[in-house]
Design brief:
Shape: rod-shaped
Number of helices: 1
Radius of gyration: 37 Å
Order of helices and strands: EEEEEEEEEEH
Oligomer: single chain
Distance between the termini: 72 Å
Structural class: mainly beta
CATH superfamily of one domain: Immunoglobulins
Length: 183
């Protein structure tokens, strides 16, 4: 095992096999894999009617990227975004005014199929969705009542407890209706 090699670097290795009567020497030119890529830069998001639009810039060493992956709130959203794509639309709804964490990672798959991903280029954002509330229908009923007029007796002054059951019921009913109204 050879340690501390630089990624994406050409090395020359010489193998010498010692035998009692004959030494065999063989040289190999080997280029190391890219290793873990650096994180994407300038991660941004915008709300769209059907989700979140995420954009980013490729890492400085683009050749080291074979794909990207995105997580929101530590949940994998996409893990096979092509290396030449730096835009992704997350098709999901998020609540108004709720803070979420978006992470975009650059990944490199080496010749042996091992995938290594960058540290997250993480941003914390408060999403504001652009969806409009669905309209609700309200029905109003009007009743017409015919009343006969009777003369009102003159007001009198009295002391003691009074009972106004009809007025109290009307006040309670009015408060109930007022509480159900949407502004």
């Amino acid at each position: 095992k050879i340690l501390n090699l630089e990624p994406n670097t050409q090395y020359k290795f010489t193998l010498i096999c010692k035998a009692t009567d004959n030494d065999v020497t063989k040289s190999y030119d080997i280029k190391t894999d890219f290793g873990t890529p650096s994180a994407p830069q300038n991660v941004k998001q915008s709300s769209v009617p059907n989700g979140i639009h995420v954009t980013w810039s490729a890492p400085t060493i683009e050749g080291s990227v074979t794909k990207y992956k995105i997580t929101i709130d530590n949940k994998l959203v996409a893990d096979d975004i092509p290396k030449n794509q730096t835009v992704y639309e997350v098709p999901a709804q998020y609540g108004d005014g709720v803070e979420h964490t978006i992470a975009v990672q650059a990944c490199y798959e080496n010749l042996h199929g091992f995938v290594s991903c960058s540290d997250s280029s993480t941003i914390k954002l408060t999403f504001v969705t652009t969806t409009k509330p669905t309209p609700t229908q309200t029905q109003t009923q009007t009743q017409t009542q015919t009343q006969t007029q009777t003369p009102t007796p003159p007001a009198t002054t009295s002391t003691g407890a009074h009972s106004y059951p009809t007025s109290v019921c009307m006040i309670i009913f009015s408060l109930f209706l007022f509480s159900k109204m949407k502004f």
